[in-house]
Amino acid sequence: MELVVAVGLIVFKVALLIAILLLLPLPLTWLERKIAGHMQQRMGPMRVGWHGLLQPVADGVKLLTKEDHIPAEADRFLFKLAPILALAPPFVVFVAVPFGESVSVLGTEITLYVSNMNVALLFVFAVIGIEVYGVIFGGWAANSKYAVLGSLRTCAQMISYEIPMGFAVIGVVMLAQSMSLLDIVRAQANVWNIVYQPVGFFVFFVAGLAESQRIPFDLAEAEGDLGAGFHTEYSGIRFAFFMVSEYAIMLLTSVLAVILFFGGWNGVLVPLPPLVWFVLKVAFFVYVFIWFRFTFPRYRYDQLMAIGWKVLLPLSMANIIITGVAFL
Amino acid sequence: MSRALDRIGTWIGWAFFADLANGLALTFGYMFSKSVTMQYPDKEKWLPYSRYRGHHFLKRDEEGEIKCVACELCARICPCYCIEVIPYEDEKGNRRPAKFEIDMARCLFCGLCEDACPADAIALGQQYEFSSFSSRDLVIGRDDLLGKPGKAMTGGGVVAARLNTEQDVLVETSEPQGYNWWRNIRRT
């Protein structure tokens, strides 16, 4: 009986997580378009529902009913595989991400995470690395110049930004003496890591921007010079898969930034429920992502590489050394 | 000395991304400013100025007689040949149009017919909402043209979209000089 309850609980949590992650892009696209509109003194979507609230639903219906086109020269197997490969990893990663300690429902303590891995951080970086395969396969299988160029860029970008991102969080691991995300948040109960690790946070955040392929680092789908990169040949539901995956990664980067550097669900000054604090912080970072998108221009390709290898990598190395020395 | 300080200040600003912060502050400020969108078919609509060239109309003189003398000069000068006039002689012996048709689908609203008319009979009025599902419905005859709204008296204001401005109504707007499109846009 105990086993059944435990298994049922895990299944329920996973189902809830998947549902939330699949549905969250709907309000996020609405929010993004609204914020974009108001930053440009437009109104954004206004006509479907109250202030365009139902616009994402209309867009979703449109994407679902559109023709699912596969180019004639495409590698059909890889072409179909790529969106799934891009979609799955961000969902898998959230298994290791904690959203809070625990809540008691009907007298039983329910933890707000699916699993407490002791190498959660390593798991997150390992799995999120798989996502790039979706992009590469998508670009390659479409057999189109723009798509291949886009995915080549993504490939180079991922390699050069995954390294500083990995180095940036080593400082956090040193402070918490653990790679478990739960322990990392617990270690920040009094002082958030951002106080000790401002450089680490800077490197992590910039690399995170690049990782989630957002402006100013969205070279893979630079509309101006590449059409839409690997998105070019995708339509209908497969395109929606890529979009959902992109939003999930944006969310993941925000969640990781909050957990690693901004004290997770630890509140400050105002006593709010831990989960509310967590959601507020994540929402702030999601807003920052959108805000950046409509403020900054895109970096050129060589500038992107220069930032990755000449600025972020030395900075993250120095951060590790200084943290280590201070720790001794 | 001050130049050296300036340069140091610039470098410090560069190191801490002062320029990026400036950009972010600007977009953030704009996010809370009013938008300039005119919600045309839903809420608001724009009143044309008196010089606006919209749908044609034919004028009548004081006795209610049609002013047109069917000289066909408008049909001659029209660059897209969209006016067709057939004259006849009425009871008083005046030359008048038996048929006066304008194909609005072909018209380019240049206003040359208005300039060419010797009798001041045709002009381009203020109506601009006459889209149609069929181009055949856009061929407008003489009697319809006589009933079309004339030149706008005032214009440039923005009024509620449901307001019917067809029948020469004088609309009181809060902006008699016309809507100031720049009022919510920051200029430095």
Average pLDDT confidence of chain A is 86
Query: Helix proportion of residues of chain B, in percent?
Result: 10-25%
Identify low-pLDDT runs of chain B: none
What overall form of chain A do the CA principal axes indicate? Answer: globular
CATH class of the domain at 61-122 and 131-144 in chain B: Alpha Beta
The greatest inter-chain interface is formed by:
A-B, 15 and 18 residues
What's the CATH architecture name of the domain at 61-122 and 131-144 in chain B?
A: 2-Layer Sandwich
Total of domains of chain A: 2
Oligomer: heterodimer
**Biggest sheet: strand arrangement of chain B:** 3-4-6
Strand content of chain A: under 5%
Structural class of chain A: mainly alpha
Q: Strand arrangement, largest sheet of chain A?
A: 1-2
Report on the structure:
The complex is a heterodimer of chains A (328) and B (188). Chain A has 14 helices and 2 strands. Chain A is an all-alpha fold. Chain A has 2 domains: 65 residues; 257 residues, no CATH class. Chain A has a two-stranded antiparallel ribbon with strand order 1-2. The radius of gyration of chain A is 20 Å and the shape is globular. The model of chain A has no long low-confidence stretch (mean pLDDT 86). The longest helix of chain B is centred in the first third of the chain and has 14 residues. Chain B has a 3-stranded antiparallel sheet. A two-stranded antiparallel ribbon of chain B has the order 1-7. In chain B, strands 2-5 form a two-stranded antiparallel ribbon. Chain B is an alpha+beta fold and 188 residues long. The radius of gyration of chain B is 27 Å and the shape is elongated. The model of chain B has no long low-confidence stretch (mean pLDDT 84). Among the domains of chain B are: 30 residues, no CATH class; 76 residues, Alpha-Beta Plaits (2-Layer Sandwich). The chains are: A mainly alpha (328), B alpha+beta (188). At the A-B interface, helix 2 of A face helix 2 of B.
